[in-house]
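Exercise 7. Given the encoded structure of a 80-residue chain, write a plausible sequence.
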C-alpha cells in the first residue's frame, strides 16, 4: 500500500530532482523509493549467508591480526 510522504529538502536538490526526473522519465517518488529500497538492502543483515553471519563481528573485541605476525606463526608451524 502506498502512502504519501512530505519531505523538507534544500531548494537546489529539489531543482536537481525535477531536472533528473524529467531527463530519466521517472517520477521523483519512484526515484526516492528505489533509493530507499537499495539502502534497505545494503543495511539488511537478513540477506547475509549463514556462513557470513557466523563470521560477522569476529574481530569486534580484538584488533585484526598483523599480517607479518600471521605469516611468521604459519611459517613456524610449517617447519615444526
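Solution.
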Amino acid at each position: 500500500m502506498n502512502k504519501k510522504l512530505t519531505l523538507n529538502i534544500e531548494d537546489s536538490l529539489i531543482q536537481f530532482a525535477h531536472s533528473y526526473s524529467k531527463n530519466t522519465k521517472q517520477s521523483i517518488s519512484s526515484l526516492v523509493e528505489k533509493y530507499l529500497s537499495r539502502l534497505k538492502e545494503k543495511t539488511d543483515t537478513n540477506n547475509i549467508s549463514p556462513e557470513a553471519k557466523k563470521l560477522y563481528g569476529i574481530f569486534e573485541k580484538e584488533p585484526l591480526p598483523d599480517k607479518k605476525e600471521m605469516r611468521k606463526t604459519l611459517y613456524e608451524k610449517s617447519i615444526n
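Remark. The chain has four helices and no strands. Students should compare their own answers with the one above.
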